[in-house]
């Protein structure tokens, strides 16, 4: 399992790469709301002041985790560029393999 914060950090990095690759492209896509649905496990520390952490259940591992201990959550994220109210634009290729 991985932390929910790591999933969001990786998503941000992928989107930043797509935005960089959109520079100078004739065809770009306006980035709208992003809906992310994940299966999570909640971990709460036993001591005073402990944090609550959300762990994302990785694909394929969900069958090994009790369905009673996992919850599905849906996050709606609205991407914005720092310092501007304009929506970001992305290029369609996620990596060097797509054209």
Q: Characteristics of this structure?
A:
single chain, four-stranded antiparallel sheet, 99 residues, 19% helix, alpha+beta
The number of helices is: 1
Q: Can you give the helix content as a percent range?
A: 10-25%
Give a count of the beta strands, DSSP E runs of length 2 or more: 6
Kindly report how far apart the N and C termini lie.
Answer: 32 Å
Number of domains: 1
Strand order of the largest sheet: 1-4-3-5
Question: Which segments are poorly predicted (pLDDT under 50) over 5 or more consecutive residues?
Answer: none
Strand content: 25-35%
Q: What does it look like?
A:
4% of the residues are buried. The model has no long low-confidence stretch (mean pLDDT 79). Helices cover 19% and strands 30% of the residues. The chain has one helix spanning 4-22, and strands at residues 2-3, 29-30, 34-44, 52-56, 70-77, 89-90. The chain contains one helix and six strands; from the N terminus they run E-H-E-E-E-E-E. Strand 3 and strand 4 form a beta hairpin. It has a four-stranded antiparallel beta sheet with strand order 1-4-3-5. The radius of gyration is 17 Å and the shape is elongated. By secondary structure, the chain is of the alpha+beta class. The protein has one domain (2-90).
């Amino acid at each position: 399992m991985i932390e929910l914060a790591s999933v969001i950090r990786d998503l941000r990095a992928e989107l930043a790469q797509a935005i960089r690759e959109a520079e100078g492209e004739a065809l770009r896509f306006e980035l709208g709301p992003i809906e992310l649905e994940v299966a999570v496990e909640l971990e709460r520390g036993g001591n005073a002041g402990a944090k609550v952490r959300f762990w994302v259940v990785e694909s394929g591992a969900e069958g090994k985790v009790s369905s009673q201990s996992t919850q599905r959550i849906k996050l709606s994220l609205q991407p914005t560029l720092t310092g501007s109210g304009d929506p970001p634009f992305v290029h369609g290729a996620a990596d060097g393999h797509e054209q």
